[in-house]
Amino acid sequence: MTTPLAPxxxxxxxxxxxxxxxxxxxxxxxxxxxxxxxxxxxxxAELGFSDNDRQWVVxxxxxxxxxxxxxxxxxSDLLGRRRTxxxxxxGFAVASALGGAAQSFEMLVAARALQGVFAAVLAPSALSVxxxxxxxxxxxxxxxxxxxxxxGVGGAVGLLLGGFLTQNFDWRWNLYVNLVFAAVAVxxxxxxxxxxxxxxxxxxxxxxxxxxxxxLFLLVYGFSQAEPQGWGSPWTWGSLAASVVLLVAFVRWQGxxxxxxxxxxxxxxxxxxxxxxxxxxxxxxxxxxxxxLTYYLQATMGYDPMRTGVAxxxxxxxxxxxxxxxxNLTLPRLGAKVLVPVGLAICAVAMLWLxxxxxxxxxxxxxxxxxxxxxxxxxxxxxPSIQTATVGVQGPYAGVASAMVSTSQQxxxxxxTAVLNxxxxxxxxxxxxxxxxxxxxVVAQAAVHSxxxxxxxxAGIFLVGALxxxxxxxxxxxxxxxxxxxxxxxxxHAGTAATARV
Length: 502
Prior knowledge:
By secondary structure, the protein is mainly alpha-helical.
């Protein structure tokens, strides 16, 4: 039994306005992972929380977002994409308002966690709206080029906007600004998104939700504790071990559940798995650029928050331009098997360039070329990977397939945060210990050395990702032959597991 593709909406002139609406929502969700970082010193000074506690302002968002994405994606399939999209927007706006008005550390952390909950509802429904709106190949390429560019540059845009708001207004506006984004997107969504869509009358896979969300929560939490607690802490290795147990149980359950949360047919497809791997690696690498380069620009080069954000603009422009070229010109001609590994390799070269930074390096020679290269590389990775991850999933599992995109990026960012930060901290300590006494010049050089180590490891991660992408993606010809003969995933009958592959 097959399920036909959703009818094309190419005749609907409002489809490009739908893209703009989805883009606003996606930008709001992605930039919120970094926009608050720049506001943290000011928020800490006003609310009076400790250095040990400040990580929870960031971690609370990542924990809720990363652990609930699969549930959010499935809810968009069951309840309808329009409904979950609007609920996610309104909920995210309310949570942002609560965070902006926070009078205590506890209130701020609770608001950030609530933001993560609604982001987990909003992100997959936004991507599934795009997936089901653009089905004509040429237009789909342009649409996913825009969406992928936003997914790639959102962190850098957050740094730019956060620097501007913190420096010119108040740290609270880093949260209040979401009210503006959400208001525009809600009005547009009410007017533009189709009303006729009905939710699917199916049962929610409650055991799958418990196992999957619990496993992802412990995975993100475990890695988030690696830097403050150390890898030997039970809070770190105990959480990671428990996450492995839960995620293995989740996979086994999905293989026999009547109505699985995540049909294994979605992740068994080599092209889709290759896309998830590439997005995961990109999430790891983007952390290396956004965090360590931010520290380098501010602590070593003396940039203020606003100038730091502006320094990332060349990367943003390069990524946006490359995203359109890659999705509309190079992806149709070369296929993901060529384009994505090449993009990951370019990112590796950019990281190696940054690993040569010293205390006396200049922006023009030491930073700018690497940022442009990184933008070109990410523009060649993110849009094609997102498009390949969602192509062919037009039916009852578009939401959960879309959720896997955000899950890959969030988990990649969490792991990148823990691993790279730990490697950098260890490198700084070792370098300083070998160059006593600890004069200001030695401390400054130790910090730069730690950034260089993080960039070097990021380069290695990108190269491993490139090799995996080569191994996983099918050739353009093989993918075309398979697409012509295999139908999209269908909703499994009661008592059976999904076995169709795309």
